[in-house]
Write a structure and sequence with these properties.
This protein is of the alpha+beta class. 52% of the residues lie in helices and 13% in strands. Strands 1, 2, 3, 4, 5, 6, 7, 8, 9 and 10 form a 10-stranded antiparallel beta sheet that branches.
Length: 360
């Protein structure tokens, strides 16, 4: 998406931006708030304002998704840290328990060896004072070592407990933030869906009237394509392919369909000139471009167009927005490559693009 190239800021800043974006009203809401406003409240009229609104929300939804996914990954990492700290803490506690057991075992062994007598009695009954002193010295050394180890492990346990508490607190904070992000993301997507529906309604009305509204100029993305050819949409799922059959077509399918939501930016696959913009018939709103070498590309079932007939376009330039006008069963872009501007001269668009370095 365009936003993935243009929004390279840190998550905290994006959170502030998203909070502002989520509070902004839709184009329709702004018009409703001012009943006295005329049809040119938005630059270029209501149609332009709605297309621009869809594009704005389209990008905001992309940013919201990016921020939400980043936050979700951070929360997963923090949760993993909390689990590791918990596991280490358990190991440390088991180590302390084992040391205590060792100390108890030493004490019991010493008691059995000395018969539980006081030190004075042991000295009287001992066969050798040196032997008695050596025994007590060994016991004292073992006792000191175990106590030192227990103290050291208790300090380590305290540090681990702090780490565990800190990791758990950070994880819960991230989870809370992600819940807020999810709500904001859902709100933007709901506004986008509403705007898409309105855009499609305007497109259907234009097709029914058989008259295009004219080019709706869009804020073009900052692109840096290194090749002369690109795919007609940036993010997509391939659906009906060239040459496939079915009840929807009188003959075989003449293009490649790209399943995309209404309002998705449609790009010129290469440099060319607009030779047709029409708004009726089975293709609904369509654009046909002529490219070098005598080839043509068609973009059909659109919701809006952003170019006029006779205009020159560059590779990757937004020429319209996808929709579901004409003979369409759902939102998608119907893309054709032809040897003439007319139907019936189509060639396989997938292999045509592949020959130009574009792999779908």
């Amino acid at each position: 998406m365009r936003s993935l190239r243009r929004h390279r800021v840190v998550v905290p800043v994006l959170l502030c931006v998203l909070a502002v974006l989520g509070a902004r009203p839709m184009a329709g809401d702004e018009e409703a708030a001012d009943p006295a406003a005329g049809p040119d409240t938005h630059s270029g009229g209501g149609a332009t304002g709605l297309s621009a609104e869809v594009m704005r929300l389209y990008e905001e939804a992309a940013v919201a998704t990016q921020v939400y996914e980043t936050g979700r990954e951070e929360a997963e990492e923090q949760r993993a840290k909390a689990r590791r700290a918990e596991e280490l803490l358990g190991i440390q506690r088991r180590h302390i328990a084992a040391l205590r057991e060792d100390l108890g075992r030493i004490a019991r062994a010493q008691y059995r060896t000395s018969g539980g007598l006081p030190v004075a009695a042991q000295m009287i009954l001992a066969g050798s004072p040196d032997g008695l002193m050596r025994g007590h010295h060994a016991f004292a050394q073992a006792d000191l070592a175990v106590n030192n180890a227990i103290s050291k492990n208790r300090r380590a346990e305290a540090r681990l407990a702090e780490d565990e508490a800190k990791a758990a607190a950070e994880w819960h904070a991230l989870e809370k933030r992600n819940t807020q992000l999810a709500a904001l993301k859902a709100d933007i997507e709901q506004k986008l869906e509403s705007a898409r529906s309105q855009l499609q309604g305007q497109a259907d009305a234009a097709v029914a009237a058989g008259a295009c509204r004219g080019a709706v100029r869009l804020d073009q993305p900052e692109t840096a394509f290194t090749s002369a050819w690109v795919a007609p949409v940036e993010t997509y799922t391939l659906s009906s392919s060239y040459g496939s059959g079915g009840a929807r077509w009188a003959n075989r399918h003449t293009g490649q369909d790209f399943a995309v939501p209404i309002g998705t930016p449609v790009r010129a696959v290469g440099a060319g000139r607009v030779v047709r913009v029409s708004c009726g018939g089975p293709f609904g709103i369509e654009i046909v471009l002529r490219h070098a070498g005598g080839y043509y590309t068609q973009y059909a079932h659109l919701a809006s167009v952003a170019v006029d007939q006779g205009e020159h376009v560059e590779p990757g330039q937004w020429i319209g927005q996808s929709g579901t006008t004409g003979n369409s069963t759902g939102p998608h872009l119907h893309f054709e490559t032809r040897v003439t501007p007319e139907s019936g001269s189509a060639v396989n668009p997938v292999s045509w693009l592949a020959a130009r370095g574009v792999s779908l």
